[in-house]
Specification:
Length: 434
């Protein structure tokens, strides 16, 4: 059986699945239930020093659904914890005492003042917590008060606060980054310069998910008005994967440990994050959608996949895909693939034909009897037909012999030639052949 035990910046847990700082980790009752369900760790919902945090007493979430009503994304307008600091600290200490083998990290957000950070860190340290996560990511509510993403969008602030914290605590310091920035490498480098033990990403994406067309107000709507919030869930996973990979392959931050989060719902999602450099993963929306026991499927699925592939430990997976992450300019333009339609699986819906004919390269022919076949001479291997086909594995991309690029058109011409100088379409080569 594969070993899923995790040691992330010295914080040990029986598996790499942590609950992210969010409503599911707001109190002792929830966290105990999470540990009982099998979660390896928890990041306690963000604590602050302001005793006057007040959340809305109305809808806090907007949603995006798929055609089958599957939840694809949540928009969240909830603030940090509105429970008293002393109550949270007392509960953290009690939980850590009873569950010493589980990771317990505390998320923090206080004003960008040295005294504020130096003041709260000893209080957290006294609970026996394993580490702190500096919340520089929340895009709503707290950012309007000069915290959250208001700090995370300024690398100089990230470095400064990280230095304060590293000088004031023995605990590992994880810096949580906002995705609401142009280049994720810049805040990651700032955290690294400040001495951060790790970074976590991504936090939620600034968003409005929908508008009530009767009230003409963003949703969720509070007494006729709405506000932007933080977007999370399966829909943000591609953005999160890209940002994790950018940090993992940046020469400055390549060795900086990463806790990956953003749309993780299955074991496969977790494995993809780890393959791109994440040392562990954090989950929120999946737990809010399916309950805490969803982690059991994640654990068993990851174990089974690792066993099947012969991976004995997480270290054999973490970062394995990073060397294969490339800039576009380094992709092999001589690689040639063509689409192939499995006629035994085809249901003759015509979706591939419509998509290719109207919006792509007119590379699929519709023959009598609605039989669809690929025209190799027109197919540029864009993969659109594979993605729109409703039948899994009905269309696949098949690699052919290497081809060459015609510099006059920028397109790959017929395969089988090592370079343009020997290709018959090249006038110079044709004259030489004569």
């Amino acid at each position: 059986m594969a070993d899923l035990s995790s040691n992330f910046v010295g914080i040990k847990s029986p598996n790499p699945f942590w609950l992210a700082s969010a409503p599911p980790t707001d109190k002792e009752y929830n966290v105990r239930r999470a540990y009982e369900a099998g979660w390896g760790g928890v990041v306690w919902k963000t604590l602050g020093l302001d005793p006057h945090i007040v959340n809305v007493n109305g809808p806090r979430y907007g949603a995006i659904w798929g055609a089958d009503r599957r939840l694809l994304g949540l928009n969240n307008i909830e603030l940090i914890t509105d429970r008293p600091l002393d109550v949270n600290l007392r509960e953290i200490k009690a939980v850590k005492c009873d569950w010493p083998d589980r990771a317990l990290v505390v998320s923090l957000m206080v004003p960008c003042e040295e005294d504020a950070w130096r003041g709260i860190l000893p209080l957290v340290e006294e609970t026996g917590a394993d580490g702190v996560e500096l919340n520089f990511g929340c895009p709503h509510g707290m950012s309007e008060r000069g915290m959250g993403s208001a700090v995370g969008q300024v690398p100089e602030y990230i470095e400064m606060v990280t230095r304060w914290c590293k000088a004031s605590t023995r605990m590992p310091v994880i810096v949580k980054l906002t995705p609401n920035i142009t280049d994720i490498r810049l805040p990651a480098r700032a955290a690294h310069r400040g001495g951060a033990d790790a970074v976590s990403l991504i936090n939620t994406i600034n968003s409005i998910t929908s508008v009530d067309l009767d009230l003409f107000a963003p949703e969720p709507t509070i007494d006729g008005k709405g506000a932007h919030g933080g977007y999370c869930g399966p829909a943000v996973k591609p953005i999160a994967l890209s940002m994790v990979s950018e940090i993992a392959r940046d020469p400055v931050t390549a060795r900086l440990p990463i806790s990956g989060l953003g749309g993780i719902t299955t074991w496969r999602d977790a494995a993809e994050f780890m393959a791109l450099g994440a040392g562990n993963v954090q989950v929120c929306t999946a737990a809010m959608t399916y309950g805490f026991r969803v982690v059991r499927e994640m654990i068993s699925g990851l174990e089974n996949w690792m066993d099947g592939k012969g991976h004995g430990a997480l270290s054999e997976v973490i970062g394995r895909a990073v060397p294969n992450c490339s800039d576009w300019q380094h992709l092999n333009l001589n690689y040639v693939a063509k689409a192939r339609i499995n006629q035994d699986l085809c249901i003759h819906c015509g979706r591939c034909y419509a998509a290719c004919e109207d919006t792509s390269h007119q590379a699929i022919a519709m023959n009598p009897g609605r039989v669809f076949e690929v025209k190799d001479e027109e197919c540029v291997a864009c993969n659109l037909c594979v993605n729109v086909c409703p039948v899994e594995d009905c269309i696949e991309m098949v690699a052919l012999a290497p081809g060459v690029v015609d510099p006059r058109t920028g397109r790959v011409v017929q395969p089988g030639y090592a370079n343009w100088t020997t290709h018959p379409n090249n006038p110079a080569a044709a004259r030489a052949a004569e």
